[in-house]
Write a structure and sequence with these properties.
With 77 residues, the protein is an all-alpha fold. The chain is 74% helix and 0% strand. The chain is elongated and about 65 Å long.
Length: 77
């Protein structure tokens, strides 16, 4: 689904429950929980932050391996 389609679907579902105060409270509570999780997730970073890390990594030391076994030995050591 595109962003616009998701937006339309969200409002379509909200229109369905808009007459039921209890369901609206549940929806608001669920949305707050979802937003809270997104704000707390430290693994998320902006595209610019990601690209800056990629550039920094490209400037650092590099290591190559001949096989998966060599990678495994390196990681386990």
């Amino acid at each position: 689904m595109t962003s616009m389609e998701l937006n339309q679907e969200l409002f379509r579902q909200l229109a369905i429950i808009s007459g039921d105060e209890d369901m609206m409270r549940k929806a608001v509570k669920a949305l707050k929980r979802i937003v809270g999780k997104a704000e707390q997730d430290e693994a998320l970073m902006s595209h610019d932050d990601f690209m800056a890390r990629v550039e920094q990594a490209a400037k650092g030391k590099s290591k190559s391996f001949d096989s998966v076994e060599d990678i495994d030995k390196y990681v386990r050591s």
